[in-house]
Amino acid sequence: MIPMNMVTPPPELAAITALQSKLVSALRPILPEHALLWEPEDTIPYECDGLAAYRKMPLAVALPETEAQVVQILKICFDMQVPIVPRGSGTGLSGGAMPISQGLVLSLAKLKKIINIDPFTRTAVVQPGVRNLAISEAVAHLGLYYAPDPSSQIACSIGGNVNENSGGVHCLKYGLTLHNVLRVRGILMNGEIVEFGSLAPDSPGLDLLAIVLGSEGMLAVVTEVTVKLVAKPKLARVIMASFDDIEKGGNAVAAIIAAGIIPAGLEMMDQATTRAVEEFVNAGYDLEAAAILLCESDGTPEEVAEEIERMTKVLEQSGASGIRISTDETERLKFWSGRKNAFPAAGRIAADYYCMDGTIPRRHIATLLKRIQGMEKKYGLGCLNVFHAGDGNMHPLILFNGADEEEWHRAEEFGTDILEACVELGGTITGEHGVGLEKINSMCIQFGEGERESFWGVKSAFDPEKLLNPDKGIPTLSRCAEYGRMRISGGKLPHPELERF
Amino acid sequence: MNAANPIIGTFREQILNAASNKTRLSIEGGGTKSWYGNPNNHTKLDTRTYSGILEYQPEELVITACSGTPLKEIEAALKEKNQMLAFEPPHFGEHATFGGAIAAGLAGPNRISVGNLRDFVLGARILDGKGQDLSFGGQVMKNVAGYDISRLMPGSMGTLSLLLEASVKVLPKPAAIATLRCHIPQEKALRTLNEWAGQPLPISASCWTGNPSGEGQLTIRLAGAVAAIKAAIPLMSSLVNASEVDPQSAEIFWNELREHQLPLFENLAADQTLYRLALPAACGPLTIPSANNEIILEWHGQQRWIKAPGDEATFNLIKQLVSSHGGHATRFKQGASVNPQFQRFTLLSEQVHSKALELVQERLRSAFDPAGVFATKRLP
Lengths: 501, 380
Description:
The complex is a heterodimer of chains A (501) and B (380). Helix content of chain A is 39%, strand content 18%. Chain A is built from 19 helices and 18 strands. In chain A, helix 10 packs antiparallel against helix 15 (365-379), helix 11 (271-281) packs across helix 13 and helix 11 (271-281) crosses helix 14 (342-349). Chain B is an alpha+beta fold and 380 residues long. Chain B has three domains: 6-172, Uridine Diphospho-n-acetylenolpyruvylglucosamine Reductase, domain 3 (2-Layer Sandwich); 176-258, 2-Layer Sandwich (Alpha-Beta Plaits); 263-346. In chain B, 28% of the residues lie in helices and 25% in strands. Chain B is built from ten helices and 17 strands. Chain B has helices spanning 6-21, 71-80, 98-104, 111-114, 117-120, 186-197, 226-240, 247-258, 312-324, 355-368, and strands at 25-28, 43-46, 53-57, 62-66, 83-84, 121-127, 133-137, 162-169, 171-172, 176-183, 203-210, 216-224, 243-245, 272-278, 295-298, 303-309, 328-334. In chain B, the strands form four sheets. In chain B, strands 13-10-12-11-15-16-14-17 form an eight-stranded antiparallel beta sheet. A five-stranded antiparallel beta sheet of chain B has the order 3-4-8-6-7. In chain B, strands 1-2 form a two-stranded parallel ribbon. Classes of the chains: A alpha+beta (501), B alpha+beta (380). Chains A and B meet through strand 9, helix 9, helix 10, helix 12 and helix 18 of A and strand 7, strand 9, helix 6, helix 7 and helix 10 of B.
């Protein structure tokens, strides 16, 4: 005889199945057949974003094709109190688009029209699913481009960029998404259409656009974005400088800024990285250098010549052991190729890599790099260091083998250690990848209870029912308490040298 | 930082007292912008006792200071290192403070090329309406941990929380500056400026002044690398028949524009109001029937200043006109006999697709300030 509990699914699963069929039948009338997925074989591609270590299956996935459908979906979910996880291209690196098992994934990927391009006012109105690079491509013939260029720009969507406040290699000079978006049209969880910002230089009331940018899909669902376009520089050239010592490289970064220069790009790679990428791209990197700096200048030919000369002088004074300046576009791209391919190169030399995203004040670059060297020994794992040196945003790539559960845990611990070091050095746990699910525990370290409570206050102001991406970004009080216990019992107290209140 | 600071302790006490007595506090620094925004008679909270630069490392491009620090002290420290507050906040008086500049959220002529004040704010330490000492953001350029609460403070005019300290990004002063001036009708000036803005030209600021019929002069500031300025001057001059203004008079002009000391801004008649119009780049010349005085256009036409009668009918007409072009209008400064109770700002409910945001804003304010200590309505 089969016992009863073998034929009936466990109560939790039964509840999920019941909710799923209720949700699907509510959404079916408003969406075309192909725009609603719920069979596991269809929804499995949505179980994670770019952070593949975090996975969960959603109740269903909706792929609306119009803003009106988005409004209807939100209203239905609001009435049923079903949480929503908005999703763009799924390239995020912090698990911000990981599904909720009792929730709906709302993909904005099919809203991918460029609605309007206005060369006179240098603006473009685009739907959230438009890829970052597609905007620049669409306006290239006008001598314009969209400045923020995250490494994933070939695939990532503007809606995702808005939600992460994405940067890129040129944001030191051209700013983040925040500085390049004028207006966001979005839908609140209750289905109301709202507009943040405008085409005017400012808007009435509090600056809600500033808070929506980088809000990780927790405040509103973006349906339209007006971006600023800027004139494409006539020329760009890059200096590649070698340093036989990481400290000298770090100091050179500070010296360039102190000389009153804002380079278009200022990137650094450590020796482990240059060796890994050189094999991959043959860019001619100096493999003996402890660190390589890439300093780009752009503008008119006159401006570039002047700036290159000034930067070269500073780099020489900072003790660069070698300096090469790109002579043409091919060579410039070749110099950049290693930096741009650091991630795939990491993927070639290790089974998996875990990308961190802390930011620190520039003057601490060398300090942090030395600490990371120590951690490599402590955790028995290698680490490649590439970073946006100009703004202190580091991307250590921790190498590990994901098939080995224990090794992944060590990689996670390694990562957490790096983030704590960033906070201690006066920086932040995430410069551009977002908190998502991945860094939610680290939020307990960076912020006190009062700050976290304020974040929940902001969340509730937009989404009182807490249905929009509710498990991401901000940790609950109990989660932080639990995390605090775990960190202490798991080993020694982190940073015992710090005073604790 | 210093949690036991006695000055902060006094502020906290004031806030907690107000909360328990159900009274409100009007935050004030040097009082140089006290006429801006809706007036109130609530008890003042004077920030000037909390003053001083806390951290400034030129190579980090960041300055951190207490809100009561004189703005001129900050600018002097930056000048010494050849750096600047690139958004050029107006002082409007000798005693302007750092916190006051941030709370007002105003920017000067450079805004069109470098961005708004809020773009430069990296971090803030505040006391909320519960007297909680909170820090958001930090001193680094890239930071996406948690909602960007520090950037809610600019332009909030003291209605959200008390700003204790802020970190703002600073920039190196440009290597070279030049100013060009020409006679050009308003319509052509707007068109030319927008065309130029789409080209890699080193324009940092623009100002058109003229009469309502469209006659006037355009002043353009170039800033950047020496070579870039040298190359741009002949190119631009020949296009609009402009001539270079001597550096000293140019500096005076841009400063008078920033500080509202040009003739249009002065001598406001008792029954008049100085209106500020914020408009999209696409907006051409606007005709306001009752505005017969000189007008000033800044930021390539995106910020316009007009003097017109201060009655509600005129403001309504201006609001409608500006809003139909996608912008908004403010009663920036009022003449002595204009009713001080007139709403100074365009309301969210008067803007397309913004009505629902009124509720969001209200909930946001009560999250930071449940007892309404800062609910002065100075900014609606």
